[in-house]
Write a structure and sequence with these properties.
Oligomer: single chain
Strand content: under 5%
Distance between the termini: 38 Å
Number of domains: 1
Structural class: mainly alpha
Number of strands: 0
Number of helices: 6
Shape: elongated
Largest sheet: none
Order of helices and strands: HHHHHH
């Protein structure tokens, strides 16, 4: 692999956050502004998907199969709760400082989240690790 799993996750999250700066910087002319809105949608979302696929593949490879549903379910509930809190805070910030400033702050936070992924433990992941298989017992051999 060229980048490896960890660096691909970092790159995807960073570009998603960085290209998000185009939205608050959009001019008022509708035709030019549409370019500032379409580019993050086309490219930013693709890079975030690149991050998410690698993240989910990594989770599935290191979490034991009998815990996988519970762990991913708990993480999904945590993500949705954080999203609800974030949307509520973003609404207050948008009303307080304005929409453009709130969108700018959101992009800054996305880039900060990507910077957190620069930790060597994440960046050093080159391939999806293989989970050791459990030895077969008599009950699993016959069934």
């Amino acid at each position: 692999m060229w980048l490896g799993i960890g660096n691909t996750m970092v790159l995807g999250a960073f570009i998603y956050g960085a290209i998000g700066f185009l939205i608050p910087l959009a001019p008022t002319q509708i035709w030019i502004a549409s370019i500032f809105f379409i580019l993050p949608q086309l490219f930013g979302d693709g890079f975030m998907i690149m991050h998410d696929i690698n993240r989910r593949s990594l989770q599935q490879s290191i979490i034991p199969e009998n815990y996988l549903g519970r762990v991913i379910g708990a993480m999904k509930v945590s993500e949705m709760a954080a999203a609800l809190l974030g949307v509520s805070i973003a609404g207050v910030v948008g009303e307080t400082v304005g929409l453009r400033a709130a969108l700018f702050i959101g992009s800054v936070l996305m880039v900060i989240a990507a910077v957190v992924l620069l930790h060597p433990a994440v960046r050093s992941i080159k391939t999806i690790p293989e989970l050791p298989t459990a030895p077969k017992t008599e009950s699993t051999k016959s069934g």
